[in-house]
From TrEMBL:
Organism: Thauera humireducens
Tree of life domain: Bacteria
SMART domains given in the database record: DAGKc (SM00046)
Keyword tags: Kinase, Transferase
Name by which UniProt lists this protein: Diacylglycerol kinase
């Protein structure tokens, strides 16, 4: 392992990120709302009504930009640039995938970002004390302040909740097909996940480098978590081996070893019970910077990857790291890092 690799992770901690200057936020400037018109069960008019009620109640101004999913990236980029120029914030209205798109733009532009969640799981919102009920989340925004939160990067894309290679991206693709057929619910997502994992057979043969280890592995999936709530729900919160915790100073990696069908059923049961970390076929560890390559030079150099529910292809090497530059999230005073007990157990 060379010194350049080591130097890229040393000093990347939450104290360093928190010390950076927060972007300015002019309370008189209109908030810019980027609405995913295709996310969630409620129609566009209902989402706009939620925002307008909160603005009227608090005497704030806002501009509402509705985007179809295909236009969300362009709309978020334009809104974030305008927010940075005006000293205001861009607000993402949608699920975790929509939040990621807006976060990419806000992080690049250097403006604060707010969240009104409409997703199935809403891990990012819940981890940072943002209400999952849209009316309550919209009201929280009205007197919130920008606070630094950790983001990860996989190659040139940031992620808020998780990133992965192998079976998990396939699971996400299958889950979307199941949702289109049977509707959006956590039970549909769970059944789709079971169906995918039971037929998962393709092994990843990977060469992995972190700051402390270099090794070759075989795994069905490499999953990286930047959200402690999600990790805790399935029981794979790793032991603290680095300063900070996943989502606040480090990230967690989970590797699922190739196993048979009956063992896979046992793993899924443990995951549903929040005890996945107890299983013999699962390995977890903490890191700040990890580089992943195909183990053999003759093997494929393009991986199917997922981040925050979005699936794409990336060329190896796959570089995954905690970024020094934080995302500045609008949070109500004292709300950071909290999730309601009923939802955290869901």
């Amino acid at each position: 392992m060379d010194d350049n690799f080591r130097s890229q992770w040393i000093g990347s901690d939450s104290a360093h990120r928190a010390a950076m200057s927060a972007p300015r936020l002019d309370p008189a400037a209109p908030l810019l709302f980027v609405i995913n018109a295709g996310a969630g069960a409620l129609d566009l008019e209902a989402k706009q009504a939620v925002i307008r009620r909160a603005l009227a109640e608090y005497g704030r101004k806002g501009e509402l930009l509705a985007c179809e999913p295909a236009d969300l990236g362009r709309g978020a980029t334009e809104a974030a640039a305008a927010a940075a120029a005006r000293g205001t914030a861009v607000v993402a209205v949608g699920g975790d995938g929509s939040l990621n798109t807006v976060a990419q733009a806000a992080h690049a532009a250097g403006c604060p970002m707010g969240v009104i969640p409409y997703g199935t799981f809403n891990y990012f919102a819940r981890t940072h004390g943002i209400a999952t009920e849209p009316d309550a989340a919209a009201r929280q925004l009205m007197d919130a302040s920008p606070m630094p939160v950790q983001v990860g990067a996989i190659n040139d894309r940031i992620f808020l909740v998780n990133a992965s290679l192998g079976a998990y991206p396939e699971l996400l693709q299958d889950r979307e097909a199941w949702k289109a057929r049977f509707g959006r619910s956590r039970w549909v997502a769970f059944v789709a996940a079971c169906a995918t994992l039971l037929r998962a057979q393709r092994r990843l043969r990977l060469h992995i480098e972190t700051a402390t280890t270099v090794r070759d592995v075989q795994t069905l999936t490499l999953f990286v978590g930047n959200n402690r709530l999600q990790l805790q729900q399935v029981g794979v919160d790793p032991e603290d081996t680095l300063a900070g915790t996943p989502g606040d100073g480090s990230m967690a990696a989970l590797m699922l070893r190739p196993i048979g069908t009956m063992s896979m059923l046992g793993l899924m049961l443990r995951g549903a019970m929040g005890r996945l970390g107890d299983a013999a076929g699962v390995e977890t560890f903490e890191f700040r910077h990890m580089v992943v390559r195909p183990r053999l030079a003759t093997r494929r150099k393009v991986f199917v990857v997922a981040f925050d529910g979005e699936v794409t292809r990336m060329r190896a090497p796959i570089d995954i790291r905690v970024l020094d530059k934080p995302l500045y999230l609008l949070q109500a005073s004292g709300a950071g890092g909290r999730a309601s007990a009923p939802e955290a157990a869901a």
